[in-house]
Amino acid sequence: MRIADAGDAVMAALVAAYGPEAALEQVRGGRFAPGFVDDVTSRSGRPPDLERRLQAWRTRLLSADPVADLALGERSGARLIAPGDLEWPTQLDDLGPERPLALWVQGNADLRFSCLRSVAVVGSRAATPYGMHVAAEMGAGLAEAGWTVVSGGAYGVDAAAHRGALAGSAPTIAVLACGLDIAYPAAHVGLFAAIRDRGAVVSECPPGVRPTRPRFLVRNRVIAALSRGTLVVEAALRSGALNTAAHAGTLLRRLAAVPGPVTSENSAGCHRLIRRGEAVCVTSAREMIELVGAMGEDLAPEPRGPVLPRDALDGDTRAVLEAVPARAGTGLATIALDAGVDLTTALTCLGALAAAGHVERSEHGWRLRRTGGARSPSDFPAYR
Predict the structure, then answer these.
(1) pLDDT at residue number 23
(2) What's the sign of the alpha-carbon dihedral 53, 59, 60, 61?
(3) Reduced to 3 DSSP states, what percent helix, strand and coil does the chain have, rounded to the nearest 5?
(4) How many other CB atoms are there within 10 angstroms of residue 3's CB atom?
(5) 153, CA 20 to 30 Å: which among 1, 51, 171, 327?
(6) What is the largest CA-CA distance in the chain?
(7) Alpha-carbon span 118 to 160, nearest angstrom
(8) What is the rounded distance in angstroms from the CA atom of residue 91 to the CA atom of residue 114?
(9) Is the pLDDT of residue 54 over 50?
């Protein structure tokens, strides 16, 4: 695990082609098996600098101590899972040659079971109060519905999504870009402890590995692959969250984005995803669940406006009500003419409207009933 950086596609291809032990022997021997260079070249389209990589791997191999890594991981309560283990999430196999060689897991949740119904929630580290609020609401709503929230444990949207999920009943998974014995960011020590208690903290880096910018980028593919879909809450045009979104698109996972103020640079990345048709506009946890859930079963409720008193009226009664003036009263014949009904129908409807408290008789005829000193049509928003 210490020989190559996490996400090294060439090392992953070497292991996939020959197995871990044979791949390690090739690194020790300082030469690749015949045909491997041609195979990698044909798939990548250009010959990679394999000799340089080989020398770098051999140098790292001298300092590699897998027994010490396992002992250190065991002391910290971490377990190492690999493809084929019962806890291994098989959706990671969609990464192909870029699939992690193994994962270190710390926490009480079963990683494979927890990720069967999961959503990745990602976004800006420098999140606005709006982004933090939406991320927390999304995390809580997903968790309450039994969906696991997967994120990166970083400042901003990640932390808000994790904290929101901890308020629900489902586990939450934090995928780190460093060893599990290193709390990064350091201010999230308490958050990671709560996540381990209710979910799991995951990394493909062995203990002692420090976070670097490239490791954050390659970590993002694991976040996208673990979940059924990715939700970008808030992201600028240059944001690591858009890197996760790109991985989700490559993996054919569902991708969604939350719109923000058009004047906010922190939401410009989300707006671009929506405008290009790469992401679905989502405004609630229920809408995200509808996007990634079972077809016909996890439907979000259709949003509706407020129910007004006039909504229950039939067509004739509504037409008569529209014909009644707000200020000065008018006669029955005028109301019937404006409403397009006969006199008998108009009188019947006016009687029903008066009984319901919508209209009243005045000195000059029928008018809308005055409540609280109303004096103009604007005071009757339910009717005008």
Answers:
(1) 76
(2) positive
(3) 50, 10, 40
(4) 21
(5) 1
(6) 107
(7) 17
(8) 12
(9) yes
pLDDT tens-digit map of 92-111:
999 988 889 899 999 999 99
> Using the 8-state DSSP alphabet, how is residue 15 labeled?
H
Q: Are strands 79-81 and 172-175 parallel, antiparallel or unpaired?
A: unpaired
What the block records as the tokens of 315 is 């067509």
CB contact set of 206 (below 8 Å; sequence gap of 6+): 1, 2, 69, 73, 104, 179
pLDDT score for 80: 93
Confidence of residue 384 (pLDDT cuts 50, 70, 90): very low
Q: How far is CA 248 from CA 123, 156, 180, 242, 325, in A?
A: 14, 21, 24, 10, 58
Q: How is residue 31 written in tokens?
A: 């030469």
d(CA 377, CA 368): 9
Rounded CA separation 298/277 (Å): 23
Q: Tell me the Cα Rg of the chain.
A: 31
Please say whether the beta carbons of 169 and 146 come within 8 A.
yes
| Beta strand segments in the chain, E | 79-81, 103-107, 118-122, 148-151, 172-175, 200-203, 229-232, 254-257, 280-281, 359-362, 365-368
**180 φ, ψ (degrees, to nearest 5):** -70, -15
Q: How far apart are the first and last CA of the chain?
A: 71
Token pair for residue 119? Answer: 């959503």
DSSP line for 133-160:
HHHHHHHHHHHHTTPEEEE---TTHHHH
CB 222 within 8 A of CB 196: no
CA dihedral 22→26→28→30, nearest 10 degrees, is 180
Q: What distance lies between CA 187 and its chain's CA centroid?
A: 23
Q: What is the DSSP string of 107-137?
A: ESS-HHHHTTTEEEEE--SS--HHHHHHHHH
Q: Is the pLDDT of residue 348 over 50?
A: yes
